[in-house]
Amino acid sequence: MTHTGRILTYSLALTALLVVVVVGSAMLGPVRIDPITVSKAVVNHAGLTAFDVSTAHQTIVADIRLPRIVLAAIVGFALAAAGTVMQGFFRNPLADPSIIGVSSGAAAGAVAAIAFPALVPLGGIHLPAFVGALVTAFLVYAIASEGGRTPVATLLLAGVAIQAFLGAMISYMLVHSGENLREAVVWLMGHLHRSNWSDVAFALPVTLVGVIVLGAYTREMNVLLLGEEDAHHLGVDVERTKLLLLTLATIVTAAGVAVAGVIGFVGLVVPHMMRLLVGPDHRILLPTSALAGASFLVVTDTLARAGPAEVPVGIVTAAFGAPFFLYLLKNREVHTL
Amino acid sequence: MTGDEWSIGDRLRIGNDSTAESENRSAADLESPLSQGSPASDETSGRIDVTDLTVSFGDVNVLEDVSFTVNPGEFVGLVGPNGAGKTTLLRSISGALDPSAGTVTVDGVGIDDCSSKASSRLVAVVPQETTLSFSFDVRTVVEMGRHPHRGRFSPPTATDRRAVDRALDRTRTAQFEDRAINEVSGGERQRVVLARAIAQETPILVLDEPTASLDVNHQIETLELVRNLVREGRAVIAAIHDLNLAARYCDRLVMLASGTVQRAGPPADVLSAAALRTAFDVNAAVTENIVTETTTVTALPDQEPKALPDSVHVLGAGTTAAGTLARLDAAGVETSLGPVPSGSAAAETASQLGVDVIATEPFAPLSRGPRDRLDRYLDTQNVMVLADFEVSAGNQVVLDRLLEHDPLVVVESRPLAERNFAGAGARGQYEQLRERSVTVSPDRVLDALDAVSAGESAGPSPETRSDDRAAASESHPYWKDN
């Protein structure tokens, strides 16, 4: 099989899996709906045709379940793609999208907006979270840069320090958040509860554009794995490429975190799973990880809402993701990139 | 380079097998008339000019006012002790480091003015160490060498594929192109990285210790390949820590020591015992290798300060005598040799070392002239060293002369029976000499001279010679061991 053929085959298979998972997820809930009806309702919502579906079912699928499922898919797609880039970028199997403080920044912005709505001028939670994430990432980048170079190790350490600082800020705000504490904590745990189509409208364009542009840099990501000096000798403008990858990964992560809160483990586990399956080549790893991440989050969010009592999806991803990751670690040798 | 060496390369199938080469090229031309087979046909010729280069890390000047040139079709070796600045120099040439002062230009263009893309089309680098801890297959790693030539969205062209195939073929890595890079051996990995650099098809190749982690067969194989790349018109500069390999394969050497160019020129000029002492602080014998006929450096253990005689005369024609000459020369003792047949191992070594030789015609009995010259040495020279002397009817007369001379050191690596062609009489004479001398193995010749000199200054009479060892044991630990 040619290289391109391999990418297409895997991508199509994972897209098919995503469709199945989405339909399956839309069937489940307090009211069980058969897959044919679900499919019809989805097509109806897209405005392509007008199948005969009962209004109740149409509303449940298109207005209640589908926005949440689509948002889960987008966020999973974004986090897994960003995780793939970060692991390659840092040449560190532990890296995930939050490593340079993106998630903490988003959390700080969101908690500030929830706890002290009067003090945060941006309105809502999405924008404060998104801005908080971007500002933090660039602060970390600026701190780590010296003389036109940004050593990856410095970036990592600066990220850890800023995360610790923001953690303190968040705790302080939580202590003083009064009756908004519960909402803030739920947001921090990562949730897709009460998602609507406007969340989708916020996250979808940013994620799609970001991941597509990242896709154009997969060859550079491969070469960067050889180390920065080798990459330079192979014609990669290292500092420019690093800045670009970091910016895109940050924006994509920020978009996901802003709408769904801090959902851990997707960006860490999914790229490792896909690396076992397709190898380390980013040309195939990035699209397949993103698609697999979408399915992964749809499945975990279905579990989160389908149980006897709804739990934040971040709890499910960590509760299932961590043991699965440990299993991989023990059995399949996930200790390298 | 001798014909013999190239045939080694051919046997290993890495030699620039001219027929296969031309077939490759003509096939390539048929497929795509626009394609250029090798970088030699590119317009860039690839001349490196390093001018007054200074590189500092903080306040420390790692390189200071380094200047030299590498021409297309030339293989320049960078030698020097650890920390001399070899890697720093190579990194400056590849544009990975910005110089503090001075310039590095390729065909007149400053390398630090180039974009990484432009410089990666001029200079390919094989670094000393590469992080390849992930499971890319070998072919993918070599394909990365084509990165400088490819547009962002363009798929690999036929030219790209051909360059990769050729590089895999020439480095003999094609046989494991599907294996993961982190699962091949260190030597194989080194060849993969070289293949990547070849696939880059640049006029200049920079190699940092390309043979450091390789077995002896792969060392030769790699350097033969590099030699072929040079013959195609590439300019190659390589840091090579093995001085003998450097001397054997490089057209010129640049010897760095503490950040400056100590010496530069043909290997035989650069690698002198004096230069090696200055740069490496090593006691080395520099001779010519019998097989490759290139300069060979043999580092010798540092000698404790010894009371060595100023001048020594060596007798013996074989390799033991040659080695003894080299050891004495490296220790700074003025030496003379002979009579020996011209063309013998000792005579060859003596001529390389610039030692005065009493040469005789091979197989001829010792004539009057050489005998007189030996007599003069016997009168003037302090110590005589008999180094695995082969006794024949023609030179037995030398033993007669020596019977009257003191002091004497006998160096032996073979028993007399194997080198006595003059019968029992000669044997008796030799045994008599041996009785009166200090007898040692070749590597102990300096100790013996030390002991002899110490004995001299203590002034023992010739009659007490048999007690010499006991006397010497008080002055030198070596003799206590025996």
Give your account of this protein's structure.
- The complex is a heterodimer of chains A (337) and B (482).
- With 337 residues, chain A is an all-alpha fold.
- Chain A has one domain: ABC transporter involved in vitamin B12 uptake, BtuC, CATH 1.10.3470.
- Helices cover 74% and strands 0% of the residues of chain A.
- The radius of gyration of chain A is 20 Å and the shape is globular.
- The mean pLDDT of chain A is 88.
- By secondary structure, chain B is α/β, with parallel strands linked by helices.
- Chain B folds into 2 domains: 270 residues, Rossmann fold, CATH 3.40.50.300; 179 residues, 3-Layer(aba) Sandwich (Rossmann fold).
- A 6-stranded mixed β-sheet of chain B has the order 6-7-8-3-9-10, with helices on both faces. A 6-stranded parallel β-sheet of chain B has the order 15-14-13-16-17-18, with helices on both faces. In chain B, strands 2-1-4-5 form a 4-stranded antiparallel β-sheet, covered by helices on one side.
- In chain B, α6 packs antiparallel against α7 and α17 crosses α18.
- The radius of gyration of chain B is 28 Å and the shape is elongated.
- Chains A and B meet through α9 and α10 of A and α4 and β6 of B.
Structure, briefly:
By secondary structure, chain A is mainly α.
Sum up the structure in keywords:
heterodimer, A: about 325 residues, mainly alpha, 14 helices, about 0% strand, globular, B: about 475 residues, alpha/beta, Rossmann fold, 6-stranded mixed beta sheet, about 20% strand, elongated, disordered N terminus
Topology readout:
The complex is a heterodimer of chains A (337) and B (482).
Chain A: H1 3-27, H2 35-46, H3 55-90, H4 102-115, H5 126-144, H6 152-175, H7 181-189, H8 197-215, H9 218-224, H10 228-233, H11 238-260, H12 266-278, H13 282-306, H14 313-331
Chain B: H1 3-11, H2 18-31, E1 48-57, E2 60-70, E3 75-79, H3 86-93, E4 101-106, E5 109-110, H4 116-122, E6 123-126, H5 138-143, H6 158-170, H7 186-199, E7 204-208, H8 216-231, E8 235-239, H9 243-249, E9 252-257, E10 260-265, H10 267-270, H11 273-280, E11 283-288, E12 295-300, E13 311-315, H12 319-330, E14 334-341, H13 345-353, E15 356-360, H14 368-380, E16 383-387, H15 396-402, E17 408-411, H16 423-435, E18 438-440, H17 445-458, H18 468-475, H19 477-481
Parallel strand pairs in B: 3-8, 3-9, 6-7, 7-8, 13-14, 13-16, 14-15, 16-17, 17-18
Antiparallel strand pairs in B: 1-2, 1-4, 4-5, 9-10, 11-12
Helix pairs in contact in B: 6-7, 12-13, 15-16, 17-18
